[in-house]
Amino acid sequence: MKRGDLLDLYFMTLGLNNGGLNPESRKKYILMRLPLANLAEEYERVRNEIADQTKPESWKEGDDRTEWDAAFSPIMREWLDEELDICPIMLTQEEAVALVANNALDGATEMAIVKRLTQE
Are 54 and 25 in contact (CB under 8 A)? Predict the structure, then answer.
């Protein structure tokens, strides 16, 4: 799975209350999120490092970011597009529905989360 897709999965489920899951499903959900949480921490470090390394020397706060973005974006995209050997344990459709049902989400968000958590 691509690093960017794994990060999307983590951030999509960030802050969800897992109280609607039975104990076994909750354990499965938490264990799925642990490597994704580590990846999110790595993302922040990498993003900051790439930003520092691509920042134009003369750039000051408020300056146009076009040159900086042009240098930053391809490197960040390549990093995000890298395939990782992390295959999160996916939930069954029933487990994913139980998870989103316990949260105040709009229908589109619920559907997106269920789809993402049940992908094979």
Answer: no
Our count of domains for the chain comes to 1
Give the structural domain span for 102.
3-56+63-117
**pTM exceeds 0.85:** no
Pick from 9, 4, 8: nearest CA to 89: 9
> Which position has the higher pLDDT, 119 or 6?
6
**Contact call for residues 92 and 118 (beta carbons, < 8 A):** yes
Name, in order, each residue with C-beta under 8 angstroms of 97's C-beta and a sequence gap of 6 or more.
114
Cα gap 20→24, rounded to integer Å: 12
